[in-house]
Amino acid sequence: MKPPRTPEYSPADVKKAWEHADTRDVIDAVFNYNKRYLHWEELKWRDLPVDPLYVWILMKAFRERDMKYVSFDDLRLKYNLLDDFLENLHFLDRSAAEIISSGLDSRPQDRNRFITNSLMEEAIASSQIEGAAVTRTIAKKMLREQRKPATKDERMILNNYITMKRITQVKDEDLTPELILEIHKTITRDTLEDPNDEGRFRDNNEIRVFDMRGNVLHTPPDFALIEGLIEELCAFANNDDGQFIHPVIKGIILHFLIGYIHPFNDGNGRTARSIFYWYMLRKDYWLFEYMAVSRAIKDAEGQYKLAYLYTESDENDLTYFIRYNLAAVKTAVDNIRKYIEKKQGESKQTLTILQKNEGLSLRQAEIIKSLIKHPDKPITIKEIVETYRVAYGTARSDLFRLEELGYLAKRKSGKEYIFIFRGLKE
């Protein structure tokens, strides 16, 4: 990936550009491409009525009219609230939570199971973005069975999962350097070359972000500035200071800042996405517990990196980064809606199983339904605990009850029992 650039231009270029401001085709191009918020790297290849540089100069001028600014130490961030941003934010504020709430069963155990699945998806995808080479199937099996990770990549996923659950517990706490260090320590445990780097800010300037060809994409601030920058980041997260920034936008800015500061030798991306998740829950966007935003990011990973690079290469214009992340959030909501529709169809199957097989509880029927899909897959008590978020004794009772009714066969495996599906009753 070649590092993106924006062009330099002189006062004479600006004067020449404004000579075209009365030309309808030029202004149409300016407004059209500003609506789509193209970067110079995207604009310069377009078929334009005049030199692309002149269109770019006018685009920049119109962007500046409505720009909002965020001062952060010596870093001056800015962004535009595009119409589609406002539409997406309105959707999140008014409709998304209703879609999720109305689509989920009112029973706490169903909501808990949904949250568990989403936390798993988020943990897996966030780790895969950073290079964890583990499939979703294997990763979910490890988490559900509470199996110890066999590789560093599996450990990354387990750490992420533990971190996500921890964030749901500390969502009402202020963000502090200590909390950020705790999150980093949890998320990187036993995965770094130097274990001493776990939960510790970097103490060197050797860290760079490179592309596959060795080009430097990002040089973080001097390590001596990190503690001060993190203190300021925490103050920005905890206080409004009279400047209203929509919570989702502010969460995205926090996400960007962790990536920009790059306070750790490794684990910065996972920490950044965790801080975003923390901030959304802190601001009562409970629907994010049900969303795997990192899954949407993983599916468009190249654009995620470009969003960072476009922002930094264009005078720290966060609009690129905000646009990408809002689109990822919208995709995550769409994925939830599809998942709910799928689960509603499966619920009808569960009811059919209940009607045909007397003596089952609803959860026991759902266990059977999952076994029908994978009849050769053994199931364990620990897996039921993690999947359905129930106590060990409850999970044990369910499986023993299903064995008693003839649906499962019980086998001893070491100190644990495994259960094999025997089929439905005729």
TrEMBL record:
Domain of life: Archaea
Domain Fido: 175-327
PANTHER family, per the entry: FIDO DOMAIN-CONTAINING PROTEIN, FIDO DOMAIN-CONTAINING PROTEIN DDB_G0283145
Keyword Flavoprotein annotated: no
Keyword set, alphabetical order: Transcription, Transcription regulation
Gene Ontology molecular function terms on file: DNA-binding transcription factor activity
Pfam family, one: Fic
Entry protein name: Fic family protein
